[in-house]
Amino acid sequence: MSLQNWGFGPFFQAQTPPQGLPARVVAQERGRWRLITAEGERTAQARGLLYSAGVVPVVGDWVLLDPATGLIEQTLERRTVLERAQPGTAVAAQAIAANVDLAFVVMALDGDYNLRRLERYLVLIRSAKVRPVVVLSKIDRAPDLEVRLAECRAVAGDALIYGISALHGLGLDVLAGELVTGETVALLGSSGVGKSTLLNALLGEERQKTAEVRAGDDLG
């Protein structure tokens, strides 16, 4: 398996010793991390020192494995990190994803539509030096589509805006042009906006479970 296709470029190669075993975090599951390595997918635990040093891996991180124990022994320096603020507390911001190149902000043109929320997402993404793309989903449900597009352009600045309907296959080919081999894309948005449906459509397979949106609460 080519790690370059997973984003293992010069920035991370320079941090990896000759005998190092690099891996990328794709999920965290109850104290274990699911990783992509040159040999394929595997799971691993982390050394206790990572916890005490405050560098616990998050999704998107590149880590080094101990050849003898198979434990995660080091988290490589991050190029970018998306962080979630802890409003009203003195707790430091929480890292939610690392080494992201592009972030799709998915907002549905139904009950989820909220320009202030869109602005907050854009601030979060740009502060991480990640390129944002606004994805307006469920355009088939928007009778005032042109008005919505104009409103979003007014707050999105230089971010590109795409209108799609993953359910009906509208706009997906154009949006797929933003995907580049070796780059990492994050999907951000409220529950029920169609992130899983969009991901499955872009991948061409049922990778994420989806559900109907419940009437009245916009939750998937």
Fold and architecture overview:
With 220 residues, this protein is of the alpha/beta class. The chain has helices spanning 10-13, 48-53, 115-127, 145-156, 172-176, 195-203, and strands spanning 21-29, 32-37, 40-44, 62-65, 72-75, 81-84, 94-98, 102-108, 131-137, 160-163, 185-188. The strands form 3 sheets. Strands 3-2-1-4-5 form a 5-stranded antiparallel sheet, with no helix packed on it. Helix 3 (115-127) packs parallel to helix 4 (145-156).
Give keywords:
alpha/beta, four-stranded parallel sheet, disordered C terminus
Element layout with pairings:
Elements: H1 10-13, E1 21-29, E2 32-37, E3 40-44, H2 48-53, E4 62-65, E5 72-75, E6 81-84, E7 94-98, E8 102-108, H3 115-127, E9 131-137, H4 145-156, E10 160-163, H5 172-176, E11 185-188, H6 195-203
Parallel strand pairs: 8-9, 8-11, 9-10
Antiparallel strand pairs: 1-2, 1-4, 2-3, 4-5, 6-7
Order of helices and strands: HEEEHEEEEEHEHEHEH
Helical coverage, percent range: 10-25%
Span between termini: 34 Å
Strand order of the largest sheet: 3-2-1-4-5
* Count of alpha/pi helices: 6
The count of DSSP E runs of length 2 or more, i.e. the number of strands, is 11
Largest sheet, strands/sense/barrel: 5 strands, antiparallel
Computed Rg? 19 Å
SS-derived structural category: alpha/beta
Strand content: 25-35%
Average the pLDDT over all residues and give the rounded result.
86
Provide the low-confidence segments as ranges.
Answer: 207-220
**Global shape:** elongated
